[in-house]
Write a structure and sequence with these properties.
single chain, 219 residues, alpha/beta, Cobalt-precorrin-4 Transmethylase, domain 1, 5-stranded mixed beta sheet, 33% helix, 19% strand, elongated
């Protein structure tokens, strides 16, 4: 039996159900600590084989099924006729409601990779353009390890003359005691000290209630 467990937005976010499950597991893996993500083939094979003999748990931050890699894991378990249970929890997709933006007005979620020499994909800009064409907000999930200032530089460089971004929203460590929300233009946000993990929101066509609420986070 394998348990795929979401830890929520902080280390205290797991439930009594999770606590009871962990007490009976023979092996417990914590993503990005005891195991690397995305998972390597060898790890998947080991997890599948172990879960045929004993109960094991894989702990992931946020919601366990946000990443497509976790869906791939469940497919492998099904193919190998291994029992599993998913324990859901909150993710950044839930937490961004704290900005005051209406969640049903968000379009397709996109991600921003870390640019490297010879590798500077701009597909996230195309997603934002598509969202703006239907007056939808855009949530940008940022690569782990991408420094905040560099992320803003990438956004500004890739989005110049392609998307509207007079003012953007930055969410830092939402769901924790250190959670912060910023609303400003890119140049002013460059001066802020923003701690990881963080995400960026490009608002589009704000409702008057959204506008009134988000102004509370303006510099």
């Amino acid at each position: 039996m394998l348990y795929l467990i979401g830890l929520g937005l902080n280390e205290k976010g797991f439930s009594f159900e999770t606590y009871d499950i962990l007490k009976k597991c023979g092996k417990i893996y914590l993503e990005e600590y005891t195991i690397e993500f995305p998972y390597k083939k060898e790890l998947l094979e080991k997890a599948i084989n172990n879960s045929k003999k004993e109960e094991i748990a894989i702990l992931v931050y946020g919601s366990p099924l946000t990443a497509t890699t976790h869906i791939s894991l469940l497919l492998e378990l099904k193919k190998n006729k291994v029992e599993y249970q998913v324990i859901h929890n909150a993710s950044i997709v839930d937490a961004i409601a704290e900005t005051g933006l209406q969640t049903y007005k968000f379009g397709k979620i996109t991600s921003m990779p870390t640019w490297q020499k010879g590798f500077k994909p701009e597909s996230f800009i195309e997603t934002i353009r598509e969202n703006q064409s239907i007056n939808a907000h855009s949530l940008i999930l940022v690569d782990i390890g991408l420094e905040f200032g560099r992320a803003l530089e990438q956004l500004e460089t890739a989005g110049k003359d392609k998307i509207m971004m007079d003012k953007i929203i930055v969410c830092s460590r939402l769901g924790t005691k250190e959670g912060k929300i910023f609303y400003d233009d890119i140049q002013n946000l460059m001066k802020k000290k923003v701690k990881a993990p963080y995400c960026i929101i490009i608002p589009s066509g704000l409702h008057f209630m959204e506008q009134e609420f988000i102004e509370n986070y303006a510099s």
